Amino acid sequence: MKPDASSIVKLGIIQTAASTNPAANFQKTEQFIRRAAKNGAQIICTQELFGSQYFCQSQDHKHFLLAEKIPGPTTAALGKLAKSLQVVIIASLFEKRAAGVYHNTAVVMDADGTLLGSYRKMHIPDDPLFYEKFYFTPGDLGFKSWQTRYANIGVLICWDQWYPEAARLTAMQGAEIIFCPTAIGWHPREKKSQGEKQCNAWETIQRSHAIANGCYVAAANRIGHEILRGVDGDGIEFWGQSFVAGTSGEILAKAGVAEETALIVPVDLALVETTRTHWPFLRDRRIDAYSDICRRLVD
Fold this sequence. Notes:
The chain is an alpha+beta fold. It is built from 5 helices and 17 strands.
């Protein structure tokens, strides 16, 4: 049986390399958004912090100058773009909430240009070359979903995508598609020994979220080998491979390691209900037995 055309939505997953020029990064992303829309995409997602290189490789106060208010100039420009193209845009920004309080935030612009809301990254890593705790206050908006013109969507950001609890709570809000703007890559010295395992783990955990929640998961990663000025070491080699997983965890489409692209992926929203009724994990959850999940460890 062919899917009902009315339940088909096309996703656009943007994967690019970033430069040191924020204006040029925005212009490139805009071009890819336009290209995706021209090719039929209705919901388009950027990679994490698309407006700059991944500055969290160092702890440097000058990088706070990259942040901006939400709403602000970027959301205004994206809203205008979304309205003109009649597309939904999920964009990852560095938010200046107040003096000393900054967030790693994704905004959702509906197809009429309306800013539907924001999601602030909940899980903040602190690892070599991923010093995000220096910059970002943990999110305080909770896990959310929004009914856009084309689908009910949720957002997780990079480190969030490793946590089953985050995906579950987003799905419980009604999300049919979970988008994951991402900036993840290899430490070049580890790539030979650990690279394949790391990348497989990243893909596997997100595919498992799709299975466990009967929804689509779309990850948008960046590409390129970024070595920041003034930072010792080999930098980060971002591994790209943006992908969309189906409701049974299958890979529907996947980008390459080094290509700049707008991945166009049609998804059938009717399969969300079909999958959730045939694999009723949400129905069979033992919510009466899960209280210990709110503890750090069970002694």
